[in-house]
Amino acid sequence: MSVFLVLFVGTLVNSVIVSAKNDIYSGYSVHGVQLRSRSDQIVLYNLQSELNVDLWEYGAPSTRDAYIMVSPENRAEVFDMLDANNMKHYVHLPDVAKENPSYVTLVNVGESFEGRAIKYLKISTSNFSNSSKPIYLMDATMHAREWVTTPVTLYTIHRLVEDLKAEDFDLLENIDWIIMPIVNPDGYVYTHTDERLWRGTRSYYPTVSTTCYGVDANRNFDINFNTLGVSSNPCALNYPGHEPFSEPETRYVRDILLKYIDRIQIYMNIHSHGNYVLYGYGNTTLPSNAVQLHHVGAAMGAKIDALKLPEAGYYRVGNSHLVLYGSSGSAQDYGQAVGVPFSYTLELPGYGYGFLVPPEFIEQINAETWQGIAVTARLSYLYYRARNERT
Ligand SMILES: [Zn+2]
User: Fold this and answer.
1) Does some domain include residue 46?
2) What pLDDT does 27 receive?
3) Spatial separation of the C-alpha atoms in residues 303 and 99, rounded to whole Å
4) Which residues form the Peptidase M14 domain (predicted)?
């Protein structure tokens, strides 16, 4: 994963909005170069230092072409050098700025209870100006100890921004994305410094309790609040808080949902663990589009199952109460209730390690879950289009 993502998560910089700028690459072109031998590669290495050529892909002699990015000023000289060495080359991207418009915006929504910046990325080919495009909203680490969920969001960003494959162009052309990798940074930090298995936020309300901190963010939403699958004990893991949206962290998610509710077609609230794709409501009431919810969720589960490790369980898909347990005040239910057609809880695999999934599984989870996400994006897009064509 790249420097960009490390910076994004690592620094939690304080700028309000930063757009990725590609204007400086206006007129830069990218060329494929056929490599016959190691000496051809050396020619490219030399161009790198002498003519400021950027080697995008090193390539491999006789099997894989190299790719070089060339500035307008140096283009003629670079071509002369390639031609002098009888190296075949061709245009891959005629103008990098045009090919990669600035389509990533970092948004700082506000501070956590303890004052940490909470951020999300907006990814859009039209800077969110095309109101006819649906939005895919995804978030992770609402529960602090579920560390393996954040890499999935980062990998999604990676695949949409840094490593967009030709077969995935539709995911950017048709859909805008909002991705919040860490909903609950206070709890996340606390799992590193104090208690690895901490689940809640880290808020402190002395009028409620002077000994226990935090609430279960995924019971804190204003939907059937404090009715099912919760404890009134402020020290309990599933304490929902003294009132709906008592936590700044859940208020930020709410605000995103409400701000873009006309366009959010799918909300994926990512958790760990258990291999589930779940939908509302936590009290067993089914949303009116339950068949569609099941269709899209089942397609995701099936896609991931086809790619899973042998030791992983199969995904189970269904109503969160019927398949797993009763709950109230969940993000999934809130999203559904305020009008997101496809609102899900995703429980990633635990491989028997529960919340302590070892890092060596991250790559597998990222890859298989990305494929599942792509399936849900495409299917829910078809439903979006069908609905909009009718109205
Ligand atoms: Zn969770």
Assistant:
1) yes
2) 85
3) 30
4) 80-380
Residue 277, domain member (yes or no): yes
Cβ partners under 8 Å of residue 294, min gap 6: 279, 317, 318
| 200 and 275 assigned to the same domain | yes
Say if strands 264-272 and 342-348 run parallel, antiparallel, or are unpaired. parallel
DSSP state of 161: I
Q: Residue ranges of the chain with pLDDT lower than 50?
A: 1-4, 6-21
The predicted pLDDT at position 98 comes to 65
Pairwise CA distance, residues 214 & 237, whole Å: 9
* Runs of H (alpha helix) within the chain: 3-11, 38-50, 75-84, 96-99, 149-157, 169-173, 185-193, 248-259, 290-307, 320-323, 331-338, 362-390
The two tokens of residue 209 are: 């309790």
User: How far is Cα 21 from Cα 1, in angstroms, rounded to an integer?
Assistant: 20
| Measured torsion, CA atoms of residues 167, 173, 175, 177, in degrees rounded to the nearest 10 | 90
Q: What is the pTM of this model?
A: 0.78
Distance 346 CA to ligand 1 centre (A): 9
CA 146 – ligand 1 centroid, Å: 6
CA distance 298 to 83: 54
Q: What is the pLDDT of residue 55?
A: 86
| 185 lies in the same domain as 113 | yes
Q: Residue holding tokens 């009431």?
A: 285
263 in Cβ contact with 381 (< 8 Å): no
Q: How far, in Å, is the centroid of ligand 1 from the Cα of 141?
A: 8
**Rounded CA separation 367/353 (Å):** 19
Which CATH number belongs to the domain containing residue 342 in this structure?
A: 3.40.630.10
- Name the average pLDDT for the chain: 91
